[in-house]
Amino acid sequence: MTQANGDVMRADGPADVETAALTAAACLFHGMAERSRLAIVQHLLLGEHRVVDLTRHLGLAQSTVSKHLACLVDCGLAQVRAEGRASFYSLAHPQATLGLLSAAEHLLGLTGDAVTLCRSHGVDRDGAVR
């Protein structure tokens, strides 16, 4: 097994495999946990976008969009295709990503406001995610 930084993780038994799987899942959710990055993912579900397109759609700075795209590519969630001087970004696994977001939407529907009211990871009075 290989970690995101390229180091090899040893899996000597079932507990190690379970720990590695939980770590990978936590990394996935951490990668999706930033509001702007999640908005970018939702736009990429519609198809390829350039940084300038996402900047215009989302009202974010070019540097912010580029930083989040680099994270998504590094995590294996997005991919980049060069065409001339332009770079086009898309989701590496659009169907799986759509499935994950659909499941999250379903779960949010079941929990109502509980997630946003959570003392640890909810929303502050000013609307900022903790």
Helix/strand structural class: mainly alpha
Distance between the termini: 32 Å
Mean pLDDT across all amino acids: 88
The general outline is: globular
Helix tally?
6
CATH topology (level 3) name of the domain at 34-112: Arc Repressor Mutant, subunit A
> Biggest β-sheet: count, sense, barrel?
2 strands, antiparallel
Order of helices and strands: HHHHEEHH
In short:
The protein is mainly alpha-helical. It has 6 helices and 2 strands. The chain is globular and about 45 Å long.
Give an overview in words.
The chain has 130 residues and is mainly alpha-helical. The protein has a domain at 34-112: Arc Repressor Mutant, subunit A (Orthogonal Bundle), CATH 1.10.10. The protein contains 6 helices and 2 strands; from the N terminus they run H-H-H-H-E-E-H-H. It has a two-stranded antiparallel ribbon with strand order 1-2. A hairpin with a 2-residue loop joins strand 1 (78-83) and strand 2. Helix 3 packs across helix 4. The longest helix is centred in the N-terminal third of the chain and has 19 residues, at 14-32. It is globular.
